Amino acid sequence: MATAMAATAAERAVLEEEFRWLLHDEVHAVLRQLQDILKEASYRFTLPGTGTEGPARQENFILGSSSTDQVKGVLTLQGDALSQADVNLKMPRNNQLLHFAFREDKQWKLQQIQDARNHVSQAIYLLANRDESYQFKTGAEVLKLMDAVMLQLTRARNRLTTPATLTLPEIAASGLTRMFAPALPADLLVNFYINLNKLCLTVYQLHALQPSSTKNFRPAGGAVLHSPGAMFEWGAQRLEVSHVHKVECVVPWLNDALVFFTVSLQLCQQLKDKISVFSSYWSYRPF
User: Fold this and answer.
1) Which value, to the nearest 10 degrees, does the dihedral of the CA atoms of residues 112, 116, 117, 123 take?
2) Partners of 193 in the beta sheet?
């Protein structure tokens, strides 16, 4: 019995020493690694023109679709803003070619990119607050920090992977339709959004429902992409979507950012798992 108790005490001592090493050394090594990865992610979002400061450089992307050539164009992305959009639309009914582009004094902020960047910055701030001189005293303290960092990273990733659902009146009221020269025809709506590593443009062609129409009017709810037949009311008119054109372009640095988020979340979870393993050795939680 005495030998067994001695072995248990020796085992406990070894485990406690390993846990102290984990808190004092390995945790900080993981935090350094996380900061390095997230700084790389942050650089992708800022895309500086020269050095580490200054305005984000402009990048041109060609819109394309494998299913249709009704919409073609070039988008100019500058950080979290579309600084130019030059689009050609072939009207399906009469093959009329429409051309519209942003007015020179206009830019369109992509809130998804801005929000994702802000969440990355907040995660970096949380990590920087626990520098090398900081001594973690309990595992619970580490778990709390990891949960806070993971929350910011999950929110950053979700902003890119989950576009906002908008009603057609919300798209019409967004102000985007008033940014073009020449002005968009009254029967067109456009919407830009991020989906994973792609910048997407959707063009909705509309037609007015006549008061004598026998169609059962059912306003469409919120959606990322509305389908032909979706109805809505705007001003004094009832409108229906007749055609939908979606085109997109891949933004490579958005893909980089998503990879960095995934790797960082994995590192956080691995550290949480190591901390939690030690709790299984004790019936009480000394951390």
Assistant:
1) 160
2) 200
> For residue 14, what pLDDT band results from cuts at 50, 70 and 90?
low
pLDDT tens figures, 25-61:
788 888 999 999 999 999 888 754 444 555 567 888 9
- DSSP class per residue in 32-84: HHHHHHHHHHHHHHH-EEETTEEEEPEEEEEEB-SS--SEEEEEEEETTEEEE
Please report, as a single letter, which amino acid is at residue 158. Answer: N
Domain map of the chain by residue range? 2-279
pLDDT digits (tens, 9 = 90+) for 122-175: 999 999 887 777 788 888 888 899 999 999 999 999 999 999 999 999 999 988
The structure tokens listed for 168 are 């057609």
CB atoms within 10 A of CB 95: 8
Looking at this protein, which amino acid is placed at residue 124? Answer: I
| Spatial separation of the C-alpha atoms in residues 166 and 169, rounded to whole Å | 8
Q: Pick from 115, 202, 96: which is nearest to 159 by CA?
A: 115
C-alpha–C-alpha distance, residues 77 and 83, integer Å: 6
Chain-centroid distance of CA 199 in Å reads 11
Is residue 138 within 8 A of residue 22, CB to CB? The reply is no
> Which residue reads 């023109």 in tokens?
49
Greatest Cα pair distance in the chain: 96
Q: Reduced to 3 DSSP states, what percent helix, strand and coil does the chain have, rounded to the nearest 5?
A: 45, 30, 30
On the CB side of 123, CA atoms within 13 Å amount to: 34
The pLDDT assigned to 285 comes to 46
